[in-house]
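Researcher: Quick sanity check before group meeting.
Model: Go ahead. Protein one:
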Amino acid sequence: MSRPLRNAVWLAVGLVLLAGVVYQADPPKAVCALRDSLAHPWFLAGAVALFAATQAGFFLKWHLLSRLAGAAVTVRQSLRLFGTLYLVGTFTPGRAGELAVPAMMRAGGRMTGVALVNRLLESAWTVSAALLVAVLVFRGDPRSARLWLLGPVLLLFVGLMVVLSRWRLTVRLLDGVRWVLKPLGRFRPVVWILAQEEKYQGALEPFYAANERLIRLPAILLFCALMLAIWMMMVSANYLLVQATVPAVGKDVTFLVVFAVMVVSAAATFVSPIPGGLGLTEFTAVAMFYAFGYPQDAFVPFLLLARFLLYVMVAVFYLVGRTAGRGLPEAFSS
């Protein structure tokens, strides 16, 4: 099955999940709740402002990482690249499309390294927070002990990320692979693999130059501080949306509950093959609200409006980047 067809199949699965969530909530009631949310304009205005601030925070993080990696990019160049990168990431499984954008825009290996580190650190931060939330939510349940098995997996992931971000360690790893494959050098697949490794070896140097600058404690601490600030704005925006769309139940929802629901939903999206986590995010959020003791169908209007505003903000930042941003010079990719 080709990749476009596979993505289309998973997108259809996501749409089925989303339709199931909406159908369970009684569509006419959901539409009425969205209409009634207009009676709370200050909540809606605050949510929109915080969503915009969240996107600005993601852009600031991207630009600072680019500068820390040694890329001589201006704010307008970063804006152009970020707008496209975030748009593509929003509509691809696990946001993996972000990794292809620097190459598509001829940004060079260094910016590809920034995109990779940014995606890995965001994924690690979100999955770690989701693991902590899941352990706290399901504490006392004997099955929750299994969640701690994810700890060694995360440590292995971080260790592998550190190894693969160091040029010298990777060279030694590749030397070992070549030594193992040498006796099989007469086989055509092995010849092709060795030829590809030799072809791209030189192009990987700027990629690793960026990674080695970013996988350091000061850069990682800065990244975590920015992620915390971004998530606080994001959760605040969604909390205001809950108050606007679900006023009857929303008054009993705490900030920490919204944070828990969001972070677990985001973690599910990162590991999902569904483009953009469409449907899966909403399904996971409904399940989390139910785990906290809330009605399953009460929050569907909130989830639909949150999804709509996400798409609006991503589109706005893309258009701003296309209009006010600047493309990278051709020489930058060399």
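Researcher: Fine. The other one?
Model: Protein two, sequence then structure:
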Amino acid sequence: MADAKVRAIPWMQKIESYNGHHNGDFLGWHNGQTLLYNSSEKKNFGSTTTGHKLENIEWWADDTSLAGSWTTSNLFGSSGVASELRNGKKHNTCFFIGTQTTTSSFYNNIYTYPMSSKSSMVRNAIGFSCQNTCRGSYSDGGGNAQAWLEKVGLFYAHPDTGKRHIYMANNKVSGNHNLNLKYPNNNDYYYCYRLSSSNITTVKDQKLVLMGMGFQFVHDYKSAPHTSMCSLKNLRIIAGDGTGLVSTANRLLICGSNLTTFQEFKDNSPRAIAYT
């Protein structure tokens, strides 16, 4: 079987342990499952003076990560992805994954996905959970010369018009670490975040479909240049239509292939659930 097969997302289920990302606690997921088009991201696109505004949300990146190119299969799997710098002053990096993120027009404030855009087109995506660590940083025992994930956004398309919507996953559901927080040591951590209550309602009522994600990192520093690094792996998408997330799913949301085009989705064409 290829690593792009898609089955289901646990409905209204949150992740409540580090091992819950990969040992079957988060029902429906399996190794290799990805919901987003498996393309390289547009990374480190920002400016120290203006940044980039997408759907009126500011994203900042002013240096280039030393880590290799991200793919959705690595982010959703055990290989993981990382943001890494050797820096003597504070910097930000950004990584965007999913369809169209390598096109220049994607970085306009207002954007409409073309018919060729690919995704599983999953509805009711309302958050994420992932494993993370600052291991590899100079200060991975606690201290300033380390990196951490500052914020995460989910990118959606309107099912009729293709207009992009971006909502931030900034409400913590569970986890032993927080977004935008330094690490006390080089241990393995996890966090699970959802959209705001009002944004969850918008995603549900407008039937928005998931197209991509954005990740912004902070790289802090000491007086001399040192390596700062943050790694993410085994990312999981949280799906539901409300805020009452539970420990065990009561149903599964079946998803299509992550190679489905927006045109096929709009035409209601036959869609693969899994393929080889």
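Researcher: One line on it for the slide.
Model: The chain has a mean pLDDT of 92.
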